[in-house]
């Protein structure tokens, strides 16, 4: 019996595990200091992989750190999808995203530090979080929930406000993060054309309860 297929599968699994370890190490560095000057040797040691393995996956440190940011953004978006599943109102999705971001500063600090340090440069990139934001904006425009506006401008406003909220959560941990997120969400919804009374109510709707596998 041929063993080539199982051997290939094992090789691909090891290769994927090595790449994940390198990305994980880069995410840790970004979260801790934001300093990308660490040597490839130091990154490989943190990932517990051989130095030569680095170039089997990335052409440069810049490529690795970009991949780490994209990985963090995708995890961020997946958390949104899981917690907000079943909500169809684009306005409620936008508001829920702001409130979950405030909560995730405590439950996912490494992830949020990566977003804080590198998110601005990725507001208009094609990553998982941005794709989800564009989806919700376009749904709101198509349904008439939001006033006609250039989706790129709306995305810029949402992204910039979200990053400001994340920065505030780390700079002012004494503040009530959810209250700030609710107020920001209400302001953003009004900016998008949701009537004031409606924006006030939507921003304060209870968040869906987390599943047993999710943090509160």
UniProtKB/TrEMBL annotation:
List residues of the HTH tetR-type domain. 16-76
Among InterPro entries, the record links this protein to: Homeodomain-like_sf, HTH-type_TetR-like_transc_reg, HTH_TetR, Tet_transcr_reg_TetR-rel_C_sf, TetR_C_40
* Annotation: DNA-binding region: 39-58
Record-linked PROSITE patterns: HTH_TETR_2
Q: Give a single Pfam family match.
A: TetR_C_40
Give the top-rank taxon of the lineage listed in the UniProt record for this protein: Bacteria
Entry keyword set = DNA-binding, Transcription, Transcription regulation
**Record-level Gene Ontology MF annotations:** DNA-binding transcription factor activity; transcription cis-regulatory region binding
- Under what name is this protein listed? TetR family transcriptional regulator
